[in-house]
Amino acid sequence: YILFAVLAIVLFGALMVYSTTALRSIEVYNDSHKIFFKHIFSIIIGSILFFLFSKINPLFYQKHSFKLIILGIFALILVRIPGISHHSGGATRWINIFGFQFQPGELVKLLLAIYFATYISRHHDKMRDFGKGIINPFIVLALFSLLLLSQPDFGSTAVIAILLFVQLITVVRLRYLTGLALFGLLSGAILIMTSTYRMKRIESFLNPFENSSG
User: What is the per-residue pLDDT for 89?
Assistant: First the structure.
């Protein structure tokens, strides 16, 4: 069922890509299908990787979870290296690999989901302690948040923070979770209010028709 759900989302996404890029593709490439075909090629590459990784025993990821987050840190550092990194729209979130642009932040979301799940599993009996349950995971979260916000990539930072919070719900004391949630909301509000472009995104979300063509 999960496979069919993913397939449906991928196909729907491809349809949306064609719908929203046909005119742009004509302007840039004089071909309404060019961007769409590039997207289809990316889907094919992704599907091959999906198949290969599905053959790996899940225990492998658990065993090497710490190495995976080291890989995530390395990928985020590559974004800061001139010549490899790609700057667009006021942010440096991409690296170029053989002509393809790759966003390490997307990989990091998956790697941290695996790492936090493994951490909770290994320390399940101690997760109600403040140190094991809050401080240790928060240190890892803070490190990746700093690397992501330096790009800047507030969206990925927020997704990772919510991901960790959801994973901790069943194992951490309620009062710790409440404090963590309040801290997260306060931090998010400060980051939004101190950034012009983030405030504009919130304003355009709340009033989408005020600046519909800008």
Answer: 67
